[in-house]
Amino acid sequence: MNRQDETGSPTRCEIEWHEGDMPYSPEFGDHFYSRSDGRSECEHVFINGNDLPGRWPENNSFTVAELGFGTGLNFCETWRRWNEIRGSDGHLLFVSFEKFPLRGAEIARALSVWPDLDDFSRQLTGHWPENPPGSVRIDFDDCIALELHVGDALQCLSLWQDQADAWYLDGFAPDRNPDMWSSELLRQVYDHTVPGGSFATYSAAGWVRRNLEAAGFNVEKRQGYAGKREMCTGGRALTDTA
Ligand SMILES: C[S@@+](CC[C@H](N)C(=O)[O-])C[C@H]1O[C@@H](n2cnc3c(N)ncnc32)[C@H](O)[C@@H]1O
Q: What confidence tier does 4 reach under pLDDT thresholds 50, 70, 90?
């Protein structure tokens, strides 16, 4: 059963476990990541799609923002790759917007599939608030911090005061969760992107691309992950400082 807050809105998303430890949302009719390998999907779509290995060495301080925290797989994999590339030098802030936070035990179960994420998963679940308040910031060490905004992405993002260098658009498939791909929300994403910043997503749906372009992004199609023909990446022009 979903938990409900005092207004009757669900504050938890019920999940099912498929094929062992693969989380699935019956409410949205979708898996949280690729059934092929969520971690490689993160690398292909979000990390390489935003050209992070090429950009991180040039940036001492970097902000990644995400729509949909889910299991924290993208967060842990991004943290692991940042450590590989930057070591203990520089600072990575990972900001995520999530309406239905999972429980710590669910996060641990999902991430247990990738043993080399154990260290990151343990630290995440060790600090994880079971009933996260509206916004929570966790400083894991001098190099890495997580800022989680709990609530509807559109509402939370319109209140967020900062801008990201790179965005992960990860809100379930657009036809199953159109709210996470609306023109209004993607305009907010654009406004919260630094000039020269980027986004990446596994979706190449025509209406999502049009919403991204209407928001102001340059959009390009790339080879998708694991049998998906296409995905999208793009950016905000360096000259667009308005
Ligand atoms: C595909 S999953 C994200 C997977 C995640 N990035 C990971 O690493 O596991 C999509 C997430 O979006 C969240 N979500 C769905 N609708 C939302 C909304 N309107 N606002 C904020 N989060 C939402 C879901 O609860 C779910 O956790």
A: very low
**Cα 167 to ligand 1 centre (Å):** 14
Cβ atoms 101, 12 nearer than 8 A = yes
- Residue 222: give the domain boundaries: 36-235
Instruction: Give the contacts of 154 (CB within 8 A, at least 6 positions apart).
Output: 179, 182, 184, 185, 188
**Number of structural domains in the chain:** 1
Tokens of 168: 């992960």
Task: Look up the pTM and report it.
Answer: 0.95
Nearest CA to ligand 1 atom 12: 68
Pairing of strands 218-223, 230-235: antiparallel
Q: Do you know the residue count of the chain?
A: 242
Q: Is residue 190 part of a domain?
A: yes
Distances (CA, A) of 192 to 123, 147, 225: 28, 15, 26
